[in-house]
Records
---
Amino acid sequence: MRFDIITLFPELIEPYLSVGVVRRAFAGAVQVRLWPLRDFADGHYRRVDDRPFGGGPGMVMLAEPLYRCWQAIRLDRGLPACRPAGAAVDVPTVLFSPAGERLSHDVVARYAQPATPGAILLCGRYEGVDQRFVDACVDAQISLGDFVLSGGEIAAVALLDAVARLQPGVLGDQASAEQDSFNPGVDGLLDCPHYTRPEVWQGPVGPMAVPPVLLSGHHAQIEAWRRAQRVQATARWRPDVLARARAEGRLRPADEHALREAGYNSGL
């Protein structure tokens, strides 16, 4: 799959592509190409923004440089410069915006499928993007949450990282991704607590031991403990996620028992 990123600041994204475990994906399964927007602007100053009609604070990204860049990307992909009206989406154009769909595991999984074409990712800046370009060329909008960033680059990196983690072979052990929070492999619940050496840690509140079940070597008991911890953590920190799992029939009788034991209201 391939992701083309329209950005005013490619230098914010470039270093990320070559560090950490996910760099394996960007060297293979996930192609990333950066498109500096000023390369498609006119004039000595390569202007990409102007004052908003109607007045108000801030600046608005111009439609024309965005359109030229968007066309160049499509041509580079071997597609028509402009998608015919009414034609199916061949490669989606995604704008990172507070108005967008909240980025979630389900959204990431859609873009992470190996057979998909990836996307053209638009990193907005200033007060926003000329709405005419959005109406004509943008197919989807994604938000990191109910807050505003200074630009879409951070959101683009978040999407790329999450997509890369789901590619086979990137994490070394595929079970790592399958046991992540929100993954269907754990029924969409939060992850359980993790522990490593030493067995007893002398911390600021005194000696703290690893839960004995994790040292037992009894795999069935360990898995049961981890499942109970996932359910209880989800009830504590993300009751909305737990409610959705219950409504979709993904909680087991043992899960409800674990919730009752921990003092949480059970759905049974």
---
Amino acid sequence: MPEGDAVYRAAARLRGALDGRVLTRSDFRVPRHATADLRGRTVLTTVSRGKHLLTRVEGGLTVHTHLRMDGVWRITPARRGAPRAGGDGVRLVLANAEWQATGIRLGMVDLLRTAGESQVVGHLGPDLLGDDWDAAEAVRRLTREPDRTIGEALLDQRNLAGIGTIYRAETLFLRGIWPWRTVGEVTDLEGTVTLARRLLDANKAHAGTVTTGDRRPGAQTWVYGRAGQPCRRCGTRISRGEMGARPQERLILWCGACQPR
């Protein structure tokens, strides 16, 4: 699933293509909004909220989308025309005279009043890449369940929004925290969430995830994507497992020596 930095970049691409321009094409290919038509309305802006995207248009309306596991927004010149119906998993097309934004395999597509955006994002915790980021509030939310594992708590978007399996693994490694340690046993939660924010912020302007400072292929991460390989710090084989109750279990990687029980 794309993490907060990837969604942040998607919002920037949508702003560059749609902001301030009048929609000449509006094609919702989801049953719930199949008759919706936004043509003639000016797009005001697109913002990211954790892993959610909010495209606000004239008239007090917001298009809410979520990429889920493999969704993507593709930006192309408008002259290419609309993709064929049913082609390539297209769920939504928004276009103006210059650019076309095509939402492919989107996990969520909603059209709602801008004043009611809280219906779809109000449950989220502080956004790691948001102007309103609040580390103290993230810590407060995490500590509501002190007996929960820190690995599961960090992925709960109600605690802090935008972190996924990559940044969870990298953050916990860099902090030396075993993923199954309980929230109540973590001595510096604020330092942990602040590091997660720093990692996402460092990657928000470019594709790919680099947490080691080394952009060479195969050298970008400490533990994620490196199961069975030697730890870059101590040489111990990186472990791989799953966390969470079925069917919500998610991948976790860690170093048993650098992240002791």
---
Amino acid sequence: MGFYDLSKTERQKLVNEIEIKILEAISDLPSLTEDNDIIIPETIWNYSSDKDTYIRKNAYLSIGRIYFAHNDLEKKILRLLDAMLEDKNERVRQTSIYALGEIGKKDADNVFKPFEKALVDEHHSVRNAVIGALKQMGFKNPVPTIKFAKKHLHDDDPKIRREIIHGIELRGRTHPEEVLPLLKELQNEKVKTVRDMIIHVIGQISYKKGCIEIVVENLNNWTNSELVIDVSEEIIKVHTNYKFATKTPEEANEYMKTHLTLFNQ
């Protein structure tokens, strides 16, 4: 029986139970030295490896809450998450990254080193967890998240460049002026998957109130006209598909025709 097969009351009871058991397991971990290894408690391993996404989600949300509610357990939790990131089970590694993302919403200093490791994980679900974590962190704690993105923006590995670009999307939806300069640095990207992600993200940060104006103003300073044309087509597509977009597709198209320098040459 899955998490959402339970009644609302039963789900809340299970959520509380998960947090209590995880807190007990973390509290029972032995005192740490620099050398001793953490053995992942069976309870935490079971929740973190569960096939049900929502069980795993409640596990990492619980770890995040416990981190901020129990200052005396911070070091144990960070060492535990390091150990989980070494586990053979990809769901356990994924849960570790999402838990670090919860921590990073307020306390980013300790999360970026494991993120760098996870960016090159062999399993896509772990790499995708970094994207999801960065999205949430960028929304809640943008300054260190953008700094991390800048550090890896020109990574030799195109998969990492793509993941970083995707990771700053959510921040861009409300503050496009913060992510557009980063995307501009990659405007001459040759790898199709990375280039496509740049186009996708700009489309996604264009549809909320006041955003297309900022996007177009920035695009006027780009030199890659071919990419700008592709981006403009994506912006129209997004405004067509998203019924909650601030402008209609026609209004968005007219705005770009009027204000995008490329169309006035």
---
Amino acid sequence: MVNDKQEVEPALVELNKLPKELGKVERAVLDNAYFSNDNVNALLEEDIATGHQNHNQSLEERLAEPPADISKNATPVEEMQHRLKTEKGKEFYGKRKSTVEPVFGIIKEILGFWHFMLRGFEAVKGEWTLVCCL
């Protein structure tokens, strides 16, 4: 599997090319494949809050009271993890399950698209465009 951790900064570059009239990205939820110290720091430089939660949390974890405060010596990653444990953080992250994940599930399970058949950047772009048209 390709490491997606290298894709956050190029995505930020592309987002910054968009017309200002579209507004600015303020928050992002990162899949585990993207979540790293470097990516959190890159997003903080752009003033974008981010987060990641483990899948299949226990009921106790889901219903736990948010922690009161976070240490002043917390790393950016620890800060983001703390934010996700708040009610607002849980609500925001929960939306990912109904907005992003179904798309990938449909592409993989319903369409049966697990890997590219063609090779080369241009060929793969064309193949992906066809998948997105379905």
